[in-house]
Amino acid sequence: MDSSELKPIAGGGLLDRRLFMQKGLCFSLAAMAAGSSEASMSSSQRLPWMREPGKAFSNYGQPSPYERRTIRWTMGNEMAPGNGVSWTPLHDLEGMITPNGLHFERHHNGVPQIDPQQHQLLIHGLVRQALVFDLQDLLRYPMTSCLCFVECGGNSNAGWHRRPIQTAAGYFHGMASCSEWTGVPLRILLEEAKVKGGGKWMIAEGADAAAMNISIPLEKAFDDCILALYQNGERIRPENGYPLRLIVPGWEGVVNVKWLRRLHITNRPTMARNETAKYTDLLPSGKARQFSFVMDAKSLITSPSFGQRLLEPGLYQISGLAWSGRGRIARVEVSADGGESWAEAELQAPVLAKCFTRFRIPWQWEGDNTVIKSRAVDESGYVQPEREALIARRGRHGYFHYNAIVSWKISAQGDISHVY
């Protein structure tokens, strides 16, 4: 079945005709099979059988050639080769983990090809003992793993436009991905370097041609930052920061410095381009939000969404992702009548702090024009805002940190579009 065409669950018409089914309803195999012509077929008729020997072993697995449409969408800067972005196809994925080859990218001057035997990490500045580590040194330290999302501060920025963009959900909101990162807790190395009393900030710098650097409060560095060497069980790939990446859970992507080579401990932020001219938000008052590190709660319905189509009235599953840099997602509410009423979706376990959370809810579509949307609430009590409320608070000069509720309009013909 083409992912752009969503078929209703067979037997859905037997259920009552409310917008949402009762909480806790599951799609049973029996319900899915009811009314299906395939149910009466014999197994020999239904199941394909490979009669010839298959392909040989490979040294590294690749996706099926039938899944070639599930790709990152890339966009470069013609005036500055190596500067650009790629989006994760969230609309084509399931679960909570992003495959390494589909993790979004944001590069400022290309992807460096770094020999791990030559790479080193320097920790210096307001420390009692400057330290230099090579990769073999770091591999000897105790490691830890954390599941967390990384989201660019510029993710979803088309939401600031006056007209709603019409593109796939992932190619609009896909500068966000979720992985298991494994590496050395940063606090271990900072304790070894013995930070001096005046040290309040850490300047992290990458080894790329842009010499990307950014300021991070030391309190966060000692809390939960990781010097990541592995992503989803394998060594980090070059476009994701090989051979060493700083992971700062829950904070905007720019501070998760790739190709990490230097940590400079100082008493003040460096006021680099990417924390002054960029990644700040000009407010209606004329002041600018700066160092707004934490990514606020956000949710997104990925199915059904733009580019997909409902074939006929019936029972469908609404599914999507929610995340928050403040902690765990407490609940996700879904509306199928443009916000007139809301129902709480089921959160797929595990529900982890600062991590993608998959939500699902069964929905009976009657074949009418309607608008579906979701809103996330995190454990701090923060509620994802409507677009109008976000603009009223932040003004119309924004580019970064867009996290408003996303609305999909479904026509009587089953076509889906993005609406405000």
From TrEMBL:
Keywords: Metal-binding, Molybdenum, Oxidoreductase. One of its GO terms (biological process) is sulfur compound metabolic process. One of its GO terms (molecular function) is sulfite dehydrogenase activity. Residues 293-398 form the Moybdenum cofactor oxidoreductase dimerisation domain. It is an enzyme of class 1 (oxidoreductase). Residues 108-270 form the Oxidoreductase molybdopterin-binding domain. It comes from the Bacteria. Its cofactor is Mo-molybdopterin. Its EC number is 1.8.2.1. The keyword Oxidoreductase applies. InterPro entries: Ig_E-set (IPR014756), MoCF_OxRdtse_dimer (IPR005066), Mopterin_OxRdtase_euk (IPR008335), OxRdtase_Mopterin-bd_dom (IPR000572), OxRdtase_Mopterin-bd_sf (IPR036374), Sulfite_DH_SoxC (IPR030835). NCBIfam families: sulfite_DH_soxC. This is Sulfite dehydrogenase.
